[in-house]
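2024-03-11 09:14:02 DEBUG pipeline.ingest accepted 1 chain
2024-03-11 09:14:02 DEBUG pipeline.ingest length=174
2024-03-11 09:14:03 DEBUG pipeline.predict start
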Amino acid sequence: MNRTGKAGFSIGSFGTLALVGMALIAALMLAAPKAVGAAEARVVYHADFADPRRFSSMLTSINNMVMHYENEFIDHDVRIVFVAHGIRFVTDDALAGTPFEEDDQLREDRDTLRGRLLSLNSLHNVRLELCEVTREAIQLSADEVYDAVEFIPSGVVRIAELQNDEGFAYIKVE
């Protein structure tokens, strides 16, 4: 037996089957996993400060985070975007005569900080991104920057894109 709808057409067994099929497809689309390649956890750290102790704290935070994700088998994409004073932590150049010039504390801690940073990159795939506006402003050669560092046109634009377009959580260690 068919029912006639308000528009004058009948919904028979074929129509019912079609409606159920469309509902099933809609439910599957809503329950579909994230796009292929999208990490379950996405976090961007903002490094725009000069203090080596603060940078060390940030590296500890990142290490704790990625270790948790890896222990729980959670796919992750963790990045550090270096802007302004953060450039001090991606080069061995003393940056003499610039606003970002190496101080005694950084000189003392540089080897340890470099090792920890590059270990996060090589062992845990933490991506390192440096603002080209900052690098070009002080005329630092790209060859003076650690090989693991990727260059991005603007650090603050990159952070905004990661947050707004790609759903990254934003962390700035104080």
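2024-03-11 09:14:41 DEBUG pipeline.report Confidence is low (pLDDT under 50) at residues 27-36.
2024-03-11 09:14:41 DEBUG pipeline.predict end
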